[in-house]
Design a protein that fits this description.
mainly beta; 1 helix; 9 strands
């Protein structure tokens, strides 16, 4: 009976240990970006235990999910790690019907999503001409 309890405890520890996830925080983004803009965001990872694994960041627009960053990361217990990422809102990657997106980040068993932001394809041009009027004479 004791052996069964020990084996069960070891098996339970082996199963639950990989489920320990890190905390993932994504910096506040702008509410709207133009097609062609570069989104720069900082993503902060932290964990109460030593943790290692792949960190991935995705740009999600509609049904499309584009991986924009991937690296192997190691965190010591109670350490924070800030990872700068970029995502390019390239017209070739975005369809004309996609007008809202978000950033999705994964590390270990953890996941975080940024707030939704809009995509604008409009160009506003404002011209101001301040020419002095010169009269002949």
């Amino acid at each position: 009976m004791k052996r069964g309890t020990i084996y069960t405890a070891i098996l339970l520890a082996m199963v639950l240990f990989p489920l320990v996830s890190a905390d993932i925080y994504i910096d506040q983004l702008h509410s709207i970006y133009n097609a062609g803009d570069i989104i720069r965001a900082n993503i902060t990872l932290s964990s109460r235990l030593d943790t290692s694994g792949f960190f991935s960041a995705f740009l999600v627009c509609g049904a499309r999910e584009i991986e924009t960053y991937k690296s192997m990361e190691f965190l010591l217990a109670d350490q924070e790690k800030r990872i700068p990422i970029i995502a390019i809102l390239d017209n070739g990657l975005l369809s004309s019907s996609e007008n809202t997106c978000f950033i999705r980040a994964l590390y270990g068993a953890g996941e975080a999503r940024s707030q939704l932001f809009g995509i604008s394809r409009k160009i506003n041009v404002e011209v101001r001409v301040d020419l002095p009027i010169v009269l002949p004479g």
